[in-house]
Design a protein that fits this description.
Helix content: over 70%
Radius of gyration: 20 Å
Distance between the termini: 71 Å
Strand content: under 5%
Number of helices: 15
Mean pLDDT: 93
Number of strands: 0
């Protein structure tokens, strides 16, 4: 039961949007846009595409807050969220999610293209409905199956520019899809008791911490291999390959530290590194996309 507190302010509604998560999604969306073209992304796709994607992602986040308000109140990590503490009512949260979600869809439909709009809607429903309402409470593979919704932003950015689904865009989705389980399981290990208390069947709760650590390492190995595919397919060049190998080695290091169990700070250290890893990987991919062709031309002219 939520606890009635002071009236909501704009910060509470901002928190409902999970801004840090949305910003990471937007980073991958923007880079998906730039990876889809050799030159500059059209300004309307860059501005309106990301605005629409951001509003729909924020709406999905608000619905997640709404659905999880009961368990949020019982978990240390989430007990101070606006709905859990009663600062935002369920009704107002629902209205807020509907308004920003509808606005995001209208922007994508009218100012971008229908393909991006419908893919974004599918991603929103995948996270807010399929994952939050069903998978999260139904199976320890919740984050694996539900991760496809959170992996969509680079595809959405790509289609906002090109109006087509390209194999390279799907490769970007695959990278985030494989990245999601080791990223989240590290946090779930750290917060295992919280999830057990509210009967959420996260992998450390149902199969134990040792099992989860092993599978975190296995997924990290798989991620290392998958992140080599942009180079193997000719999508990216040697700068990206160097970055992917170095960043992947760092992720493997933390997964092994986590597995060995000698460092009590390893779960959160692995979780934090995974965020830096994804941001850096996509940024290096973008640099490779634009700098290597320029370097090649420069060398030919010399």
């Amino acid at each position: 039961m939520t606890q009635p507190q002071s009236a909501a302010n704009w910060r509470d509604y901002y928190e409902l949007c999970k801004p840090n998560v949305v910003l990471l999604m937007l980073l991958t969306s923007v880079i998906g846009m730039f990876m889809s073209v050799p030159g500059m992304v059209p300004w309307n796709a860059l501005i309106f595409g990301n605005l629409g994607i951001a509003l729909c992602a924020a709406a999905a986040a608000a619905i997640n807050h709404l659905v999880d308000s009961r368990i949020d109140l019982e978990m240390a990590r989430t007990h101070n969220r606006p709905i859990a503490q009663g600062r935002v009512t369920n009704r107002n949260a629902g209205i807020f999610a509907a308004i920003i979600g509808s606005a995001g869809m209208a922007i994508l439909l009218i100012l971008v293209n229908p393909l991006t709009a419908w893919l974004t809607l599918a991603s929103l429903l995948g996270y807010a409905v399929v994952y939050t309402l069903y998978l999260k409470r139904a199976t320890p593979q919740n984050i694996v199956i539900g991760g496809i919704a959170g992996a969509a932003p680079p595809l959405l950015g790509w289609t906002a520019v090109t109006n087509e689904i390209h194999g390279h865009a799907l490769l970007l989705v695959l990278i985030i899809f494989i990245w999601t389980p080791p990223h989240f399981w590290a946090l779930a290990i750290h917060r295992r008791d919280d999830y057990a208390k509210v009967d959420i069947p996260m992998l450390p709760v149902t199969h134990g911490i040792a099992y989860t650590k092993l599978h975190t390492l296995l997924y990290t190995i798989l991620l290392f291999v998958v992140t080599l595919l942009p180079f193997a397919t000719g999508m990216s060049g040697s700068l990206y390959l160097l970055g992917a190998v170095c960043l992947g080695a760092g992720f493997l290091y933390w997964s092994i530290v986590l597995l060995r169990g000698n460092n009590p700070k390893a779960p959160m250290a692995t979780f934090k590194y995974s965020i830096i890893y994804l941001m850096a990987l996509f940024m290096i991919m973008l640099l490779d996309h634009y700098l290597l062709p320029a370097m090649t031309i420069f060398e030919v002219e010399l």
